[in-house]
Write a structure and sequence with these properties.
Layout: H1 2-22, H2 25-43, H3 47-64, H4 68-73, H5 76-94, H6 99-107, H7 109-112, E1 115-116, E2 123-124, H8 126-129, H9 245-259, H10 265-283
Antiparallel strand pairs: 1-2
Helix pairs in contact: 2-3, 3-5
């Protein structure tokens, strides 16, 4: 167990030593001078402005040198501290530069946000525009070896040391923040209560569906024929055939014998009279 703790302790020391070695005090001074020299060249800084800008850049790089590895790995805490230090640095520059100089400063991303943190690595953006690291337009600042962060905000109640030093300049009206805006957290929508669903029976209990080829035949409706009344005589299902000529003659002869020849004569005479009267009326 002691051996494990010893190995962990040694690994932590190696990591800290690697971080310190990657950004030592000498490296901080070199990076600060190169960045300040190019800002003085493009923004046309005066000598007092050049010295103050060097101090501001030194404080920023010195503060974030322990955070760069964590920011490159995506550590949320390190990223928050990095952007806070960057906003303080840009606000201090606002009190040193004029309004015109500060607007040009904001348009140059390699000045406004000098460190690129993409791809899991960190690099200074100024080397993209100025790849020659031995090229300098101005000399070494007078306090290049002596300044160690004496004008940082914690020593002045978190107020900018450079505020009010340039009364003859018109400064940028409001602070500028590089920190990306946080996305508002949307409140969770209330979940509607679920309606109870009747449990479905298992497969072996469900009745099988009839197949299309074995559909049951549709049932016929019962007949609506009214039943015949019991008093009414039954009608023959078949109409009787007409009697032949002999039967008719026999029936007439029998009728004449019973009536004595008086039954049919008056009817025929009356029929003839009616036909004669109808003929007369038509002639008239």
């Amino acid at each position: 167990m002691k051996r494990i703790f010893f190995l962990v302790f040694v690994a932590g020391l190696l990591v800290c030593a690697r971080t310190m070695a990657s950004m030592s005090i000498g490296t901080v001074r070199e990076e600060t001078r190169f960045l300040t020299d190019k800002m003085a060249y493009e923004l046309s800084l005066t000598t007092p402005q050049y010295n103050d800008v060097y101090e501001i850049n030194y404080d920023f790089i010195y503060t974030v040198r322990y955070l760069l590895d964590g920011v490159a790995r995506g550590d949320a805490g390190a990223l928050s501290d990095y952007y806070e230090a960057l906003d303080i640095r840009n606000d201090d520059l606002r009190w040193v530069l004029s309004d015109f100089q500060y607007r040009r400063f904001l348009r140059a991303e390699y000045f406004c946000n000098p460190i690129d943190l993409s791809g899991g690595r960190w690099t200074f953006r100024v080397y993209v525009n100025y790849p020659n690291r031995s090229l300098f337009y101005f000399g070494i600042p007078p306090h290049y070896y002596t300044y160690r962060g004496a004008h940082r905000r914690p020593g002045f109640h978190h107020v900018s040391f450079y505020r009010g030093r340039y009364h003859d300049l018109r400064h940028y009206p409001e602070p500028y923040r590089v920190r990306p805006p946080r996305r508002p957290v949307r409140p969770e929508r209330p979940v509607a209560p679920h309606r109870p669903v009747a449990p479905r029976p298992p497969e072996h209990v469900r009745p099988p569906r009839p197949k299309p080829e074995h559909r049951p035949a549709p049932q016929r409706k019962p007949s609506t024929v009214r039943p015949s009344s019991p008093d009414a005589p039954e009608r023959p299902s078949r109409r009787p055939s007409a009697p032949d000529r002999k039967e008719r003659v026999q029936r007439r002869a029998t009728t004449v014998e019973k009536t004595g020849g008086r039954g049919e004569a008056p009817k025929r005479e009356s029929g003839r009279k009616r036909e004669g009267e109808a003929t007369r009326s038509v002639r008239r």
